[in-house]
Amino acid sequence: MTAFSTTEKSAMSDTKITPADLEAILKLVESAEHLGDFHLKYGDLELRVSRHAPQSDGAAQASSTAPAPSTIESTAAAPASRAVESSPPRKAKPAPVPPGMSAVKAPMVGTFYRASSPGAKPFVEVGDRVEPDTVVCIIEVMKLMNTIHAGASGIVREIRVGNSQPIEFGQVLLVIAPD
Amino acid sequence: MAAHRPIRRLLIANRGEIALRILRACRELDIETIAAHSEADAESLPVRLADRAVCIGQAPSAQSYLNVDALVGTAVAFGADAIHPGYGFLAEKPAFAERCARENVIFVGPTAEMIRLMGDKIEAKRAARDAGVPTTPGSEGAVGHRDEIVDVATRIGFPLLLKASAGGGGRGMRIVPRAEDLDRLLTEAMAEAQAAFGDPAVYVERYLTNVRHIEVQVLGDGERVIHFGERDCSSQRRNQKLVEEAPSPVLDARMRERICEAAVALCRRVCYTSAGTVEFILDQDSGEFFFMEMNTRIQVEHPVTEMITGFDLVKEQIRIASGEPLAIRQEDVRLSGHAIECRINAEDHAAGFAPCPGLVARYQAPGGPGVRVDSHLESGYEVPPFYDSLLAKVICWGRDRDEALARMTRALGEMQVEGVKTTVPFHLELLAHARFRAGDVNTRFVHDVLGF
Fold first, then answer.
1. Quick check: is B113 in a domain?
2. Which among A163, B235, B300, B310 counts the fewest CB atoms within 10 Å?
């Protein structure tokens, strides 16, 4: 029932975010005690909320820093990537895998990484061609790195989890459109 | 004592009613909960009520609730400060507590060394003797040589009990009624111990027949140990407790103090830190009591003690785990009235207590004065076939034992579980029995008198 990075294309594409919505989102973020960073990209709106003390880029991924006053920046950004990355919203049902598509599901609980090391090029991007043995991501469980393969050949349609997000068993990580 | 380290987010590494019990304690302590669950429990009540839920694996326990990597990994990945193991599963596995410590996650329980010490029957018995606590006459430790076992057996006398040193669940256990049965039963016990635990060693002790199971609830913070009186769990079937009550109907004040002081002495000696239970057998023929074992977890029947003392043992256990010193003094613990618990299992008692998994089409909980129900049950719940069959614990409190029994009979009459067979009819039969009502039972009563 905890879903991460759910993508609800059709439901979201024709609604506009009002100032009231924005305020509601910020309130939610403010009240989420354990939330570190919040990043929302929706249409031409981009919202970043950080409750961590400002850090250098390298350390920005490290979690569990002391709470600090929130900094909020809102910028207009390039069009729509539709991804909502945040701490897990409760009870949101994960979007179904479209018929005919194949899903790469997490074979274990852990932390999802898109690249072999911080700063490295991601294993795959949306639109890339993959073969069954193509490495698509890494799941870390207590410092043990498990490489995850595509398991099917086709084109990567969606990457549903943000880098370094915790994931649960059976969660859909990527969606692949078979040839 | 460990430095105080507040717990803000706690991972519940269990399921069913105890997951819910831990969740409730956390809510009251303002601790965020993560329910780690298997695929089979994804829709269950504790999973839905938790602040977050994380599926950790498939239905079989080995892939979920017994999966150390997945559980500790989830705690680390999802930022939990602590893991509560509940009872069963990994609650008394030293390797799990060790792994938590290595990953800097608080294990809500004692240290791995303490779990290991008390999990070793022989070491635990030695610790009890060192603390001046009486133990059952028997071999000093596990004995692997036949001749030596025969020597010890002859010294103790018959009937006697053979138990696998690493045993549990009755495997590798044999009662030897007479000297002439020793040879045959010893062969069986050693073979079974070898097959089940990879070690043929058994230990030998006097077999007492007219005994009650009396256990003492303790809390220790590493410096102080206090007790919360005893529970009487003499109504058992094949070493599985069915009904527990507190206080025991047979202990007088002097005897209660002696048993409780013995439990405290053992815990003090080993600097016990957490909630725990020291189990004794009370020989009704001689009036002697003997240390049996110590359980280093919160137990299924802890609510019975909560009902007569008013303390929340799970909350206290969590506070101790975060390094807080005990805020309760022994003189604050006062026993009031009488409480009794019936374990309602999805089992058909008429068919040898066979488990009955399946869909609970409708559930109606009992209620009213003095009734507490700890359960994850709800209408539409599918009892999965993968785990134990405990559906609910009904706990009734009364000013005295008679009132508690009357309330239990009334409460079980109200309880409705449609779709699966439960042990409610068994409990009603037990509650109605004159000897049970008089408190005149021993650990063989359910078998010998009721025929189960």
1. no
2. B310
Measure Cα distances from B258 to B114, B262, B290 in Å: 24, 6, 11
* Domain end among B173, B191, B206: B206
User: How large is the ipTM?
Assistant: 0.76
Q: Is residue B130 part of a domain?
A: no
Among B3-12, B85-94, B148-157, B317-326, the least confident range? B148-157
Q: All domains of chain A, ordered by start, with CATH?
A: 9-85 (no CATH), 102-178 (2.40.50.100)
Q: Is residue B129 part of a domain?
A: no
Q: How far is A44 from chain B (nearest CA, A)?
A: 31
Q: Which chain A residues touch B79 with a CB distance below 8 Å?
A: 34, 63-64, 166
Helix axes B94-102, B112-119, angle to 10 degrees: 170
Q: What is the mean pLDDT of chain B?
A: 94
pLDDT at A57: 36
Verify whether the Cβ–Cβ distance A109 to B103 is below 8 Å: no
Residue B371 confidence (pLDDT) above 70: yes
SS3 B202: strand
Chain B neighbors of A171, CB-CB under 8 A: 55
Q: Which two tokens stand for residue B140?
A: 């000093």
Domain-ending residue, one of B189, B206, B223? B206
Residues B51 and B14 in one domain: yes
Catalytic-residue membership of B297: yes
Contacts of B200 (CB under 8 A, 6+ apart): B144, B190, B191, B193, B194
Q: What is the pLDDT of residue A36?
A: 53
pTM summary value: 0.80
Q: Identify whether residues B198 and B215 lie together within a single domain.
A: no
Compute the C-alpha angle B385/B313/B60, nearest 5°: 20
Q: Which of B21, B231, B297, B407 is catalytic?
A: B297
Nearest of B211, B202, B120 to residue B153 by alpha carbon: B202
pLDDT for position A47: 60
Nearest to B240 by CA among B168, B308, B176, B175: B168
- Please give the average per-residue pLDDT across B393-416, as a whole number: 98
d(CA B233, CA B340): 10
Residue range(s) defining the domain that contains residue B100: 9-108
Name residues whose C-beta falls within 8 Å of residue B52's C-beta, 6 or more positions apart in sequence: A2, A88, A90, B32, B33, B34, B35, B78
What six digits make up the tokens of B363?
């559930």
Looking at the complex, does the CB of residue A43 fall below 8 Å from at least one CB of chain B?
A: no
